[in-house]
Amino acid sequence: MSEERTVTLKIKRQDGPESASYEESFTIPYRQNMNVISALMEIRRNPVNAKGEKTTPVVWEMGCLEEVCGACSMVINGKPRQSCTALIDHLEQPIRLEPMTTFPVVRDLAVDRSRMFDALKKVKAWIPIDGTYDLGPGPRMPENKRQWAYELSKCMTCGVCLEACPNVNSRSEFIGPAAVSQVRLFNAHPTGAMNKEERLEGLMDEGGLANCGNSQNCVQSCPKGIPLTTSIAAMNRATSLQTFKNFFGSDH
Amino acid sequence: MAASRDFVSRKLHSLLGVIPLGLYVTQHLTVNYFATRGPEDFNAAAHFMESLPYRYLLEIFVIFLPLLFHAIYGVFIAFQSKNNVSTYGYLRNWMFYLQRISGVIVLIFVTWHVWQTRIQAAMGAEVNYQMMADILSNPGMMIFYIVGVVGTVFHFANGLWSFFVSWGLTVTPKSQRAMTYVTMVIFVALSFVGIRALFAFV
């Protein structure tokens, strides 16, 4: 080994929500089995850019480090994904890191995913069981249904599907694929189904499900392989039926 | 709670594209196809269409009002999206993009076509084989009409695919894939019908 191996990163940085973005390159020593997060940690330990100038450490978000929390999503070499499972050995260099564009930037690679959590509130993506007395055990869930519902429960609100969606942007109010799939999850649950109309009404509100344009980028991009377009079509069917029920009347 | 305006507009936009507009386009192309049997047959078919009872009501409620809503709301939808086929070059994302491009092409084509035929007819011109033969004798117009017809047929066929998803008819990836094939066959078949009829005028 004549020379020490290095990793080059080109990072799109932004000092604050209102400031202009700029690019900064970093060259850091290579270590075995590095991922993008350990590379960012190396920059944080020694914040010196490729020109040898001292700079501020790059800001990013992270949580679980095992691709279940969704906090560390960013655009890596052009595609949105989690930085914890982006292994340096698998990436073409220089590695380009950018914040996701659908969300407002807080600083550098950290974005504000509030619109996703607002969407979950809008469609009531929970099962209301709190009360003043014990309601007892709920109805049982058939095993075959539990199996596909489990796949939907893997959603970690990471934002990759919204980033890939051409209809989620600053010009539209679309809640995005993640929240739509969560309605299907909670409506599939036997206890959750008791409030299914409320969630469907949420989907039929402004910026709801009908804003989907069927580009199907979401299902191609989801890191957890959630069948998002199946959920969207299933909720299209449910909201279509709900519309007829609302208009013509139904006891079911 | 009533469904939001957003929801109703989108659903109406999807419905009108197929019923009546898609059906009307298919019917129109079928009548055009009479041209392949010669000027007399085409003139007879065109005359039958223009002598239908309560023709103005049919034109207003089957063609012009649905067309106006579909076109105006469609332009709003098209310019709301942020196309990203360069990053996400998947088939359905391309179809999404082409649906928006073809929509704008169809709007330009149909506006011109209505001016050149229906409005001229209202101002006294006779819509017949000779009128179309005169228009299509210009090679530039022929190209414009081929692009317009193929664009319209694509917009209808691919829109039919979206219609099946948007109304929750095709839910599984398998059924959606099957519909991709079905709608592409419709696209090819109607393009053939449309282009062959155009060339019957030269």
TrEMBL record, chain A:
Its EC number is 1.3.5.1. GO terms for biological process: respiratory electron transport chain; tricarboxylic acid cycle. Transmembrane segments: none annotated. Keywords: 2Fe-2S, 3Fe-4S, 4Fe-4S, Iron, Iron-sulfur, Metal-binding, Oxidoreductase, Tricarboxylic acid cycle. GO terms for molecular function: 2 iron, 2 sulfur cluster binding; 3 iron, 4 sulfur cluster binding; 4 iron, 4 sulfur cluster binding; electron transfer activity; metal ion binding; succinate dehydrogenase (quinone) activity. It holds the Pfam family Fer4_8. It is an enzyme of class 1 (oxidoreductase). InterPro entries: 2Fe-2S_ferredoxin-like_sf, 4Fe4S_Fe-S-bd, 4Fe4S_Fe_S_CS, Beta-grasp_dom_sf, Helical_ferredxn, SDH/FRD_Iron-Sulfur, Succ_DH/fum_Rdtase_Fe-S, Succ_DH/fum_Rdtase_N. Its cofactor is [2Fe-2S] cluster; [4Fe-4S] cluster; [3Fe-4S] cluster. PANTHER family: SUCCINATE DEHYDROGENASE [UBIQUINONE] IRON-SULFUR SUBUNIT, MITOCHONDRIAL, SUCCINATE DEHYDROGENASE IRON-SULFUR PROTEIN. Belongs to the succinate dehydrogenase/fumarate reductase iron-sulfur protein family. This is succinate dehydrogenase. The lineage of its organism: Bacteria, Bacillati, Bacillota, Bacilli, Bacillales.
Automatic annotation (TrEMBL), chain B:
Signal peptide: none annotated. One of its GO terms (cellular component) is membrane. The keyword Transmembrane helix applies. GO terms for molecular function: metal ion binding. InterPro entries: Cytochrome_b-558 (IPR011138), SQR/QFR_C/D (IPR034804), Succ_DH_cyt_b558_Firmicute (IPR016002), SuccDH_FuR_B_TM-su (IPR000701). It is found in: Membrane. Keywords: Heme, Iron, Membrane, Metal-binding, Transmembrane, Transmembrane helix. Pfam families: Sdh_cyt (PF01127). The keyword Repeat does not apply. CDD domains: SQR_TypeB_1_TM. This is Succinate dehydrogenase.
